[in-house]
Design brief:
elongated, binds uridine-diphosphate-N-acetylglucosamine, nine-stranded mixed beta sheet, 449 residues, 15-stranded parallel beta sheet, binds calcium ion, alpha/beta
């Protein structure tokens, strides 16, 4: 039987933020979501989240986590005090307790599996995760003999200068035998520099501890301030990019691009500098993205080119060319081989195959048939000041430059709209529609005296 406890009650004073530390985002997911995800593969019987500082907010953000039990720690008197709160909910539980610091988000699931396996095979009361850090400042130091037996963990601030020279670092990730931990938890004292109850002190009390040293010390980086947050973001981004490069994506300037866990790429995609992918986006085979794009929660099919554009919550079919400087948002749905060019915004609209909107347009709440040609500066006026209305334009229609289509309005197929028209009434198929003042010319005006 395995129970997992995530320590997520702390304030995160060093972040200097109104947001609880465990809710800080990292590559699109919060720290605590990442920590929870790292132990999912172990399929624990119980998942306990210790919350305290802004408990409700943390709890609300995790409402979608089925089967999570929230345990309140009030006030927050240290990591040992946090785990003491489990004495009641885990009464009678006879298995292992995996304790995860809520601010250590780069752990690999395989590492946790290895920790659990080592713990089960060693028979120790606790097995903790360690690493040798080039700069262990701020972390607890682990004291072990040559055989891997751990005698104590001493916090950085409680260490003597000689003890600080020890670079074996406590990750804040532990696998305990719960009944044995439950016995020593009440014996913790606040005899330390912070006057808190330290979970790390249970190691000496248990008298039977071993450790697993991770090869990749990046995994154990904790986040206490924004510098460490940025460092972890950089490591995570590197992991994501390396993964996709191995899967056949070319990044011409990898370090300038950011991805999220939910980003998916096909083969032979080329990503040029300064492109950012957020949420769950799928980029099809042979797309060329960038430079300078933001793509969020969108599906882009094969052979699409996007240059200097923003695409959010939208779908783009095969062969489209987007940008430079276009914006698709709020369910813009483009059929195959559309062309949405310079300074064109498409919002909550469907464009059938082959539509061209090349310059300076707003297409909002509109449905365009196949091969419609939108002239430069065409605007769908979708808002009457109170409500939004739709515009429909039949297949094969063309709008002249600077047309305003005042919705609700329907243009049939093969309609031609004269340049500079403001249309407020429907137009039947095959018609020419003009809605503008007739031009008049007064000759000799300059010489009128
Ligand atoms: C802790 C360890 C340290 C280790 C480091 C690894 C202790 C005493 N020290 O130090 O040995 O090297 O993690 O990152 O455990 N929390 C609560 N309730 C509290 C206090 C903290 O839930 O009362 C939570 C925090 O939200 C956080 C985690 O516990 O997620 C760790 O707390 P933090 O104060 O960051 O501990 P460190 O000083 O980093
Ligand atoms: Ca920490």
């Amino acid at each position: 039987m395995l129970a997992v406890a995530v320590l997520a009650a702390g304030k995160g004073t060093r972040m200097k933020s109104d947001l609880p530390k465990v809710l800080q985002p990292l590559a699109g997911a919060t720290l605590v979501e990442r920590v929870l995800a790292s132990c999912e593969q172990l399929a624990p019987e119980r998942r306990l989240l210790i919350v305290g500082h802004q408990a409700e907010r943390v709890q609300r953000s995790l409402a979608h986590q089925a089967g999570a039990e929230f345990v309140l720690q009030q006030p927050q008197n240290g990591t040992g005090h946090a785990v003491q709160q489990l004495l009641e909910p885990l009464r009678g539980f006879a298995g292992e307790l995996l304790v995860l610091n809520g601010d250590v988000p780069l752990l690999r699931p395989e590492t946790l599996a290895e920790l659990l396996a080592k713990h089960r095979q060693s028979g120790a009361a606790v097995t903790l995760l360690t690493a040798r850090l080039a700069d262990p400042t701020g972390y607890g130091r682990v004291f072990s003999d040559g055989e891997g037996r751990v005698s104590a963990i001493i916090e950085h601030r409680d260490c003597s200068p000689e003890q600080r020279a020890n670079d074996l670092t406590n990750a804040g990730i532990y696998c305990f035998d719960w009944p044995r931990l439950a016995e020593v938890l009440p014996r913790l004292t606040t005899d330390n520099d912070q006057g808190e109850l330290y979970l790390t002190d249970t190691v000496a009390l248990l008298g039977s501890a071993t450790h697993l040293e991770v090869a990749d010390s990046d995994e154990i980086h904790g986040i206490n301030d924004r510098l460490q947050l940025a460092a972890c973001e950089a490591r995570l981004q590197q992991r994501l990019r390396e993964h996709w490069m191995r899967e056949g994506v070319t990044f011409t300037d990898p370090a300038s691009c950011t991805l999220s866990d939910g980003t998916r790429f096909g083969r032979d995609v080329i990503v040029d500098p300064q492109c950012h992918f957020r949420g769950a986006s799928v980029i099809g085979d042979r797309c060329r993205i960038g430079p300078g794009c933001l793509i969020e929660n969108s599906q882009i099919a094969e052979d699409v080119e996007v240059l200097h554009s923003v695409i959010r919550d939208s779908q783009v079919a095969r062969g489209c060319v987007i940008g430079p400087f276009a914006q698709l948002r709020a369910q813009a749905v483009l059929g195959e081989n559309c062309r949405v060019g310079n300074f064109v915004e498409v919002k909550n609209s469907t464009l059938a195959a082959g539509v061209k909107a090349n310059h300076l347009s707003y297409l909002g709440d509109a449905d365009l048939g196949a091969n419609v040609n939108i002239g430069a500066g065409t605007i769908t006026a979708n808002f009457d000041g109170v409500r939004k209305h739709r515009t429909a334009i039949g297949a094969g229609s063309k709008t002249g430059a600077n047309s305003v289509l005042v919705a609700p309005i329907t243009l049939g197929e093969d309609v031609t709209v004269g340049a500079g028209s403001t249309l407020t009434k429907d137009v039947p198929a095959g018609a020419l529609a003009l809605g503008r003042a007739r031009q008049w010319v007064k000759e000799g005006w300059a010489a009128r005296g």
